[in-house]
Please model this.
Amino acid sequence: MAKVRNLEDLLVHELKDLYDAEQQLVEALPLLAQAVTSEDLKGALEAHLEQTRGHVERLSQVFKALGKRATRETCEAMQGLVTEAQQVLEEGMEPNVLDAAIIAAAQKVEHYEMASYGTARTFAHMLGQHEAAQLLQETLDEEEQTDKNLSKLANTLNMQAVAVENQDGRKSGSKRSR
Model:
């Protein structure tokens, strides 16, 4: 990491981190979309992939607005979230439970992105970088909408996962007593 001496340096650091995070997602989302059984979830993940590609392009515009070259700095947080999501695929879960686990992983990613874009947008605004702040706000708005869409979808998918649990002879939400 380059030495951070002021808020502008911190903004550029955050942007490099986001640039890497989005590119990690471009690689991970197709694997998750391929693993799900819900067509609605698959469609949501594929739509998010296209949106994420747009976020990479928009970040390039932010760098340009700041007079900086778009470069990546490893986003360890996203690396951890992606690793966690990939581990879910190896658990051998029932399909409906796997869908619920993948949507949970996707929402963790969205919440990280919303926090990161909100922070970067605020830094840009405080520095008088209004074009950059506007571009970052556009992405933040899209991330928030994606999170809302995933939440709606999760309501249905989580109920399907509960149905799997009930089919296994366990009572949902409580342990059996003897």
Q: What stands out?
A: The longest helix spans residues 130-167. The chain has one domain: 7-167.
